[in-house]
Each structure stands twice: as structure tokens, then as C-alpha cells.
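Lecture 7 notes: from sequence to structure.

We start with a single chain of 195 residues. Read the sequence below before looking at the structure.
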Amino acid sequence: MELKFCQSCGMPLTPEILGTNADGSKSEEYCIYCYKDGAFTGDFNMEQMVEFCSQFVDEFNKNTGKSLTREEYKEELRKYFPTLKRWKSSDAELPHANSPIKQKLIEEVNALNIKDMPTIDNLFVLQGSFINQEYKINGNSIKLLDDNASYWGNQVEKLNAEGRCYGIACDEHYILVSEYGKNGTDAEIVVFKKR
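Now the structure, written as C-alpha cells:
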């Protein structure tokens, strides 16, 4: 069986991460992180996709046995992405993300006015199992997300705090913003609220 790759981000396509078409069927070309309900989950150019994907350099290194820096990985992505359908096709040929809930969530997250969090201008579809952090609450370790669900989310570097990030995970019911160190260490809940 030939291994296929997402024609947007280059991730290997497996049945559990196939994106969805407008009719709910599975896409054979795009992953769920890039493509949901017949449209791309993020409207950005190839360089913005390179920047977004470069945050996963540690995962890439682990899976390939390489030891690329983030800048070296970006260079690899810049060479690879032009071979993918999304970046070879004209803008007019591609379905764009215009989900009203996505725009509303971006507005709601920014309205939280979290100290040292940059303005959020995009959210991506992320798998719960990939972003589900463990938090210590009253001495117990708990996870707040469903590993099998998809969330609108993003990760941004915390301003004025090198090595710390904010993670955002939202759906139609909740908004979760957490703060953590490299590889999700020392995760703390900043905001967890019902919408």
C-alpha cells in the first residue's frame, strides 16, 4: 500500500486523520488539521504554513532520527511544500476556510485579554490526543480534552517569557487556554470557560 501525504502540510495520511469533505466523506488528499468540512482550516500562505509546521521540529527529528534545528527544518519545508497540491494550485482553485465559528472563537480568545499573549489571528484544527495536557488540580492529574475529538487551536510564544507558550483549544462549548514550557512541561490552566 502506497503511503500518501497531506497535500497541504506533508503529514503522512492515515485513516484516523483524514480530513472531511463538505458532504462529510473523508478526504483522500488532506489531513483533518488542514481540511475540515470541505475547506482549509487556515487561510494563510505557504510561508505561514512553514512557520506553523516548524514548531513540530522535535517530533520530526524523533520520527526520522535527524537532529535539525528549527531554521534547518524550515528550509526543508520550503523545498518540500511547493511539491504539494495546495501550494502548486492557484488560490482560486482551492476551498478556503471561512468557518463562522472559527472567526467567533478568535474574537472570544482575544477578548480574554490574557497578559503577555499575542493577538491570535488564526486557529487550526488539532486532534485532542495531540494537545491534551495533564494538569494538577487539588493534587490530582487530570486531562480536560477528549483525545478523540478535534479542536480549534493554536500555540503561541508567551511575550516576555522565553521558553513559555500559550496553548489554545476551543470548540462550540468551551475555551481552554493553558501556559506551559517546552514539550508541554509544567502545564497550567490560564482560562477554562464555558462559551
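DSSP finds six helices and eleven strands in the chain. Keep this in mind for problem set 3.
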